[in-house]
Amino acid sequence: MSEKHLSTQFDAELTSISSQVLEMGGIVESQVIQAVQALIDMDSELAQQVHVREELVNQLEMTIDSDLSATIAQRQPTARDLRLLVAVSKTIGNLERAGDEAARIARFGLRLSSRSDAAMLQQMLPLRDLTLSARMAAESLRKALDAFARLDTALAIDVLRQDDNIDHEFNAMLRKLVTVMSAKPDLVEAGIDLIFVAKALERVGDHAKNLAEQVIYVVKGADVRHNRLETIEKRLAAG
What we know:
0% strand; Phosphate signaling complex protein PhoU; mainly alpha; 239 residues; Methane Monooxygenase Hydroxylase, Chain G, domain 1
C-alpha cells in the first residue's frame, strides 16, 4: 500500500473523528440550553429529553474513544497529528462531563417541578436570571468547538477571556439567592438547588475553557493549563 494512500486514509479517519466530536459538542450545547429552559418553565417533559440525549452523548464518547484507539494503534501518528488525537481524547471527556452537568440541571428541574408549591417557586425565585448564564456557557462551548474545528487560537483565547464573565455571573447569582433565602427561609431548600444549578453552568464554562486550552496545545504544542490569561497571550504572541 502506497504512502500516499495511507496518508489519505489517515486524513479520512481524522475527519471522521473530528466530525463526531463536533456532533457530540452540538448535542451537549443544546442540552445545556434545554435543561435550563426546562427548569425555568418547570417542564418535566423537556427535562426528560435532556436525560435521553445524555445517553447519546455517552455513546458518542465511547465510539470516538474506540476510533481513537484504533487510529493510534494502526497509524502510529507523530508530532501534530498525535497532539490532535490526544486533544480529542481530552475534549470528549470534557464534553461528556459538560453533558453530565446539563443532566444534573435537568434533575433539579424535575425535582422543583414535582413540588406542590412549584408555581410559587416560579414567582419567588430568580429562575430567569439563569438564562444569561446558560447562554454564556453554551456560547463559550460553541466557540470552543469552532476553535477546535478550525484550530483557531484566536477563538480559543476568546473562550478563555469569556470564562471570567461566566464566573462573575455565578457570583452574582449566588449573592441574589442568598438574599432571597435570607428574606424567606421557606425558600432555602429550593434556593440551594438553584445554587447547584448555577454552579453546574459555571462548570460547563470551565469545560469549554479546557477545550480551548487543548486547541492551543494542538496548534502550538504548548500546555497552557493552569496559566494566567496574560501569560498565555504573551506565549502565543512570542510564537
